[in-house]
Specification:
There is one protein chain. Strands 3-6-2-1-9-13-14-12 form an 8-stranded mixed β-sheet, sandwiched between helices. A 4-stranded antiparallel β-sheet has the order 15-16-18-17, with helices on both faces. It is globular and about 65 Å long. It has 9 helices and 18 strands. It has 2 domains: 172 residues, Carbamate kinase, CATH 3.40.1160.10; 68 residues, Alpha-Beta Plaits (2-Layer Sandwich), CATH 3.30.70. A hairpin with a 7-residue loop joins β13 and β14.
Length: 319
């Protein structure tokens, strides 16, 4: 029997109606004779609201107390989802980060996972239960709650998948995969069916918000395929895994206001693409400060702000 880890972000569990959609996706895979472990984020804007409420009380909040507060958001999500699944007739149990055996270092607000004791998770799976784990949190050696920073539930999911030697780790959100550029700004953006861990790390470092970079690093280390999909449709997603050798440009992204990056395995050997990019820069008469090329990324830094129009022109020319 395969073990599958499914992670659902805050927008996926924002209200009771969306929780029902999530529950149906979980049940679908459970009914196919899989062991199912689910990791969830806090609902909607819960974390932001908790931070705001805390700051109304004090301008000098200890990190330990903030972690104790913020961890409550994910605990609400796991309890609600477990209540719903049990009501639907499917055995489920919610586990906090520490109940799931996630041990971290002593750094609050941005803790690193040291080990995961999977004994409790495995015990519940043996009883055919759907195990629902609070993302974004663990416990340190002092038994204090710690949290992992923004995007930390992704890290929880892939780390748990690695500890359980899971077949796959699905990351569900309100987008249905990784795109060649921001689909909200460029209509010709293409969804990528597959990309390497290295490419995804480059995209994450350039500001792409689909996956937390720490989860990609864990996936690469333990060779866990990460599949990004939409909670709200059944379209194929994007698979992040090992790609032995490939020479394909995958994405064009803009970070902040003055840097554009083009990501793809073997891009250093794609002389044609490099020439096209330089031709566009010359044609647009843009002042360029740096042009760096590595094995999987071209990074261009400009003197002034770069319009989205330039990003779109490069995208249309080389993707």
């Amino acid at each position: 029997m395969d073990t599958i880890v499914m992670k659902f972000g805050g927008s996926s569990v924002a209200d009771n109606e969306k929780l029902k959609i999530v529950a149906n996706k979980i049940v679908d895979l459970y009914n196919k004779q899989n062991n199912i472990v689910v990791v969830v984020s806090a609902q909607g804007k819960t974390t932001d609201n908790l931070i705001s409420q805390a700051k109304e009380l004090s301008n000098n909040i200890e990190d330990r107390e903030m972690d104790t507060l913020l961890s409550a958001g994910e605990q609400i999500s796991i309890a609600k989802l477990s209540i719903l699944l049990n009501d639907m007739g499917y055995p489920a149990i919610s586990l906090t980060g520490w109940q799931a055996g996630i041990l971290t270092n002593n750094t609050n607000q941005n803790a690193l996972i040291k080990t995961i004791d999977t004994s409790r998770i495995l015990k519940e799976l043996e009883q055919k239960k759907i195990v629902i784990i609070a993302g974004f949190q663990g416990v340190n050696e002092n038994m204090d709650i710690t949290t992992f920073g923004r995007g930390g539930s992704d890290t929880t999911a892939v780390a748990v998948a690695a500890a359980l030697k899971a077949k796959n780790c699905y990351i569900f959100s309100d987008v249905d995969g990784v795109y060649s550029t921001d689909p909200n700004k460029e209509k010709s953006a293409k969804k990528l069916t597959a990309l390497s861990y290295e490419e995804m790390l480059e995209l994450s470092s350039e500001g792409a918000k689909v996956l937390h970079n720490r989860c990609v690093e864990i996936g690469e280390k333990f060779k866990i395929p990460i599949i990004t999909k939409s909670t709200f449709n059944n379209k194929p997603g994007s698979v992040v895994s090992d790609i032995i050798e490939e020479n394909t440009i995958k994405s064009v992204v803009k970070k902040e206001v003055s840097r554009i990056s083009i990501v793809g395995n073997g891009i250093i050997r794609n002389i044609s693409a490099i020439r096209k990019i330089l031709d566009i820069i010359e044609d647009e008469k843009i002042d360029m400060l740096e042009f760096n090329v590595s094995e999987s990324k071209i990074s261009i830094t400009f003197k002034n702000n770069v319009e989205d129009r330039i990003l779109n022109r490069i995208h249309e020319e080389i993707i």
